[in-house]
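Researcher: Here's a chain I'd like modeled. Treat it as a single chain, no partners, no ligands.
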Amino acid sequence: MPVIEIKDRENRVVETVHLPEDVFGGRAKKSLIHQAVVNYLANQRQGTHATKTRGMVSGGGKKPYRQKHTGRARAGSIRSPLWRGGGTIFGPEPRDYSYRIPKKMRRRALMAALHEKLVGNQIVVMDSIAIEKPSTKEMLSILRNLDLDGKSVLVVLPERNDSVSLSARNIPGVRVARAMDLNSYDVLASDTLLMTREVLATLGEITAS
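Model: Modeled as a single isolated chain. C-alpha cells:
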C-alpha cells in the first residue's frame, strides 16, 4: 500500500499515512489518459469559427462582363470563390466539438494520472492550507517553504476557499481547484499537486462517484 508524508507549512513532516489503494494503487494506462485529455480539450473548444460563403460576401450582384467575345473565362459574379475577395469554399462553420466518454473511463483516467504523479514524487500533502485573509505574500511563503516556488502547482482543496484562491491567482503557474472538480488534464498539466489531508480522505469517494 503506498504511503505519503503529511507536512505542515514549514515543510516539517507531521505524520505518514497510507494512501487509498483503490485510488493510487492502480497501474497507469497511457492510452486511457490520452483519451480523457483529448476529450477534455475538445469539450473546451468554443467552435465559433466561421467563414463567409459566396452568398454571404457583399457585392457581386452584377455580371462583371459579358459572357462571350472577351477572351476571358466566363464569370457571373465578382464574389465567386475563384476571385480575390470572393467567398470561401468548404470553410469552417460553427460547430460543437464536445462529446462524452463513459464515466468509468474518466474515473480510471483520473486515477491513472494521480498514480503517475505519485510515482514521480509530484504530490505534496499538507495538514491544512489556511489563510485568514487574501495574501499573495503568505501563499508565496508557503510555496517557498515547500520548495515549490517557481513551479506550476495545482492546489487542491476539499471545498471552495476564496482566501486561498485570491492569494494564489496572481502567482504565475499556480492554480486552485476543488477536489470534486479534478480531472486528468489538470492533474497532468501541473508539475506538482499540493493537496490537504482532507482531500486525500475524499479522493476515494470522488473517483468512485
